[in-house]
Amino acid sequence: MITPVDSPEMPPDSELISSLLNEAYALRIKNERLSQYAEGKIGELVVARREMEQMRSGLETTSKQRNELSARVENLEREVENLLTANAASIEQRDRLRNRIAEIEASPDYLRAQRIGRFFQFFKRSNPTK
Questions:
Q1: For the chain, how are helix, strand and coil distributed in percent, rounded to 5?
Q2: Which of 5, 37, 84, 96 lies 20 to 30 Å from 112, alpha-carbon distance?
Q3: Tens digits of per-residue pLDDT, 15-73?
Q4: What is the DSSP string of 47-96?
Q5: Residue 79 CA neighbour count, 13 Å, CB half
Q6: Are 116 and 109 in contact (CB under 8 A)?
């Protein structure tokens, strides 16, 4: 019976050991390169996570500011609406008063009062009291 060590296909012991050492060295180098690659990727992930946290923080700040500005805009819109309502009411009141004054000035009683006032002014200038 032929044992694996005695087989003609197997190299002698020194060649086998050398081959195994070379293979072990190659695996060690491969393992080292894989470790360096993994460390590099981990470093990239740490940097990416830091950037993501900064972006999240900036996004939260922006969102908070947007909400504050939105509330402020709503308040300003309400205030503008109130001012427009007050302005419309003031314009309506002004127009009513203008119409009323025009009616009063066109009334016969007002015209008579104007004539009487001018008449008394005339007498007042002609007869000054001493």
A1: 90, 0, 10
A2: 96
A3: 899 999 999 999 999 999 999 999 999 999 999 999 999 999 999 999 999 999 999 99
A4: HHHHHHHHHHHHHHHHHHHHHHHHHHHHHHHHHHHHHHHHHHHHHHHHHH
A5: 6
A6: no
Backbone angles phi, psi at 7, to 5 degrees: -70, 150
104 touches 110 (CB < 8 A): yes
Rounded to a whole number, what is the distance in angstroms from the first to the last CA of the chain? 165
Beta carbons of 10 and 16 less than 8 angstroms apart: yes
9 phi/psi in degrees, rounded to 5: -80, -25
Q: Name the residue with tokens 């001493």.
A: 130
Sorted by where each begins, the domain ranges of the chain are 12-126
